[in-house]
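User: quick one
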Amino acid sequence: MSEVPDVAGLVAELRSASRDYDEDAAETACKQLVNVVRTAPESLEDSDAKAALGALRRMRAFELMERLGDGFLAAGVKAPSVERLHAQAVIEGGRLDAAKAILAAMVESEPLDSKEGREARGLLGRTFKQMYIEMGDPTAPGAKEALADAIAAYHEVYTADPTETWHGINVVALVKRAERDGVEIESAPNADEMAAAILKHIDDLSLDGEATAWDAATASEAALALGDAEKAASWLASYVGDSGVDAFALAGSLRQLEEVWQLTLDGEWGQLLAVLRANMMDQADGQQIQVDKSTPDTATFERQSSGFEKTFGTVGGVTAKWWDLAMVRARAVARIEDKTGTGIGTAFLVKGSDLNPDWGDELIAITNAHVVSDPQQLKAIMPGDAVANFTMLDGQEPIPVVDLLYQSGPYELDVAALRLATTPADVVPMSLARGLPVNDGEQRLYVIGHPNVGDLVISIDDNKLLDRDDRLLHYRAPTEPGSSGSPVFNRQWDLIALHHKGNDQLERLNEHEGERWKANEGISFPAIRAACAALAAQLADGAARPAQDT
Amino acid sequence: MAHITFIHGIGNKPAADDLLRLWNRLLASGDGGIDLGAEGITAEMVYWADVMYAEPSVDGGSHESADTTMDLDEPELDVDSMSEAAASDEEVWMSSLRGKLNFDAEGDDEFTPPMEDIGAEFERIPIPWAIKRRLMKVFLRDVHHYLFNTESVPREKSFATQDEIRLRFVDAVKRGADREGPHIVIAHSMGTVISYDCLKRVDDCPAVDGYMTIGSPLGLDEIQDKLQPGWSRDDGFPSERVRGDWVNVYDRLDAVAGLDPAIANDFRRGGESTVMDVHQSNPGAWRHDAGKYMAGALFREQLSRMLGFSDV
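Assistant: Done. Structure below.
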């Protein structure tokens, strides 16, 4: 008699992989699960299939989620919830035409009065909405139809059941968007009346103690539609403060405010975005957040804060000011490029005297020796060939590197301290942490850099300190080539390390020496500071400039 | 880097790890927060709620952060029976403290005095009377059990309350003493009585570098009397085991600390007042909350100074 496949065990493995953000383990479990289901489809309960897809959604592994969903559906799984999760993965993967076909078929088969029928119509609305947004031009062929179809899909559900406020608020958002874009939608509902009705319904639920976090998000959007800043902020605070709201949900809310409502950080409602972003960053299961020049400076934030600070100042541990500080740090981060503009790595500014008293108040750029060094280390470029491009600073031309003040080779501290031709204005150097975080398995850290030498991003994905000693830190964060030379921060945005590499086979630290694991590695900034201070002490003793430690 | 030994106050609490995580979070939250883990500062919680209670409270968040009170949802405390069972000196002590705490154990928990009676001389804070009564009962029970080393049987195992809690505190202080950097004890409410007792009166307890008390009832004569031998008004400062400062943060409207909030005059060092009493106004009606103390700017200023972060 053949062994009964342990579906439950595989689903548990998948959940565990999701918790640890271990994509390799998740992929292995998915392959096994698909094999089991192919050979013994009866062994898979609908609830297991749903749990497996849910685990992948949590870790934002949408490609894997789609493949697993394909596998389940090919094996004959018929549960509408599995079809819906599969469609969701297809949408997240950006294959909107495919999603439309899948969901249109679901809408045909699932009646409006069933939960899955309503969900399918909502996702179909989302697909059309995404199509409209991605067209980027309201006059593009098919744009008006996509917007009208999105409104119709959501509105059908809301009309049938006005307690489906998620569908309702999407109608409101899209009708408002159509008004802004000058797109005329035939027999469009009155968005203000709908928003007021939705808000009243959720206020009533709240009075009865029955409003959920999702209701709070919807109410915030309804208040936004009605121009009530105080209410929008208050409801958003309830939403982000709820422990059940994960990064996936926050990302969806952020997308809605940015893409549909077209809010910008430097606009009138920028604080709503700032709070959402800050709270995403405080989640272990966040993601990379791209930042750019449109991100407002501190003064703008302070000006905007007047209407919101009272509400947001007390939300959990993460405030808009916390996000503001992240932006201050991001402004002091540069992409190191060669003179043709090709990106090589990342660098950041520190106050010279924080490393070596002889360097005074000058701002020094820090990067890896394998990015800039002399003699060249690995694939580094020479200092004279390097420029620092502060991509967050409007109007700032790339600044040439004019001197190499200190370097330590890639197998030592992997650091290069560079003097720039000029110092950018309005930049605050990094604040150095007093020490390294405790190694208690609960510390979060954050990396700001130019992964793949592209745009500046803040890496917040599973941003956990795994281990450390006095010289090295190991952490999980989605860094890519080009992140070399990025600053690594503790939760207070104080500098703790210089990122220098990451791979699947990194040798572990402390009592695990000799073992290997998947991690990123940064050089402890206190160790770098101590090395620079030692250099200063040697020079003060009259020694010749020491040979660079390569 | 530094190490902090926390000790909690009266009432039931979430499980030890959860409580420590909660206090760390409260201390790190908001503007000016001190994120101990990020700063490389280790911390341990001296947990003693399980000496009094059968199982941890399940509602992790409400104990320290909600604007109500701690978890008092437990079988009614029969302090009258405690009084009857007590020996005569205990009975006198309890009666005296109960009078100070301003509640009648035989009264109706649902009774709320008319608003016009809620004045400075009768009721110092406008919190629901029933809540205050229950709080005071818990306080009276916990402080009595500790100071009289009463047997507590929360589960199948019984404890000599003071012996057990002293042991836990002293062990935690020993672990902290083994670490590098300054070692600071932060005690809340009843935890201040326990920590003071150990730092002043337990020979085996190692010295610490700094001591912070928040929401402390140490100003009450009845408590000071039971901390003898050891305590005296002129030499009550635990100089033997507190090498640095003792900072006492209180709120006059804190139901527990407010009975006699400033303590420098009661815990002198060689006749000199050296305890630094700091009045901090906590928000809301319920001012005894550890989270509110730890969120306060004055508390954070003093802790930053003791950790060597600032010169305030």
